Give the backbone structure.
Amino acid sequence: MNPKLIAKIAQISSVLEVSGYPKPGNVHRTRDFHDMVFEDFLISGIAIGDTITEAATHALKINNTISFMEANLGKYILQAVRETDKWVANNTNLGIIMLLTPIAMSAAISKNLDELKENINNLISFSTVIDAVALYEAISIADAGGMGEQTEFDVKSNDSKEELIEKNLNIFDVLNISSSWDSLAMELTNKMPVTFDIGYPLFSKIRKESSINLATITTFLTILSKVPDTLISRKYGDEKANEVSSLAKDVLNSKDFDDYLLEFNRKLIEFDDFLFENKLNPGTTADLTASSIMVSYLANYMEQ
């Protein structure tokens, strides 16, 4: 696929994800947080465009397993984070960048969704220690807590890069360490099952039948109901994350396409208010929603 087209899809996916209304517990078009606002996310989604184009263009040079080691995945993740950091003060899109960058690079060299999934896995599996060091620097710039808190490779430690180099760990290695307690890491080290098996097909189906907004919200809720959000888990524990997932399922169960979604919309707004008032932010779910949207739009240009 054309790198510029891929970048446009990445930007569109980022903007559609944050525009979902009301996307419970997250910033959306009528909900700002004290430290970040709706416009920050719009800016972030647009700001990554040039880097995604460059990454996808570079990926066209990849044609075998050996050259995946020269894909520079970490470099482009870091570059996208740096570009975002020029425009917004807080971490708005680290998770989205970590998901959308390998998707974009893989799309440049894939003819269909099966190849896309395999190439994403190859990019991560055959990354290098240089990529891992760049990833850690990106996390540090974004000031995103959580990825390394429970491992010896703490992203907040000044010795982490030296440890990575000494043990020759790549992106797959460091993400695999945290995959048991971080669903984004799990996604990236297991061929993106949430994106490909849950989010993408659901978003595509509802977008054809109804509206983009309903597709976005339903995809978000469905992912949240099936995969407890690990950002919430890290802040408040697994029990609270499971409770939020159960509440998301209850909202989904109220959805009735034949009744103009009145009850669904009422419960959706109540759920959004509840999460906001209790400072429960399903941020990882939002990231997975963005990746699902991107794959859905990519699928329109690929062989099925």
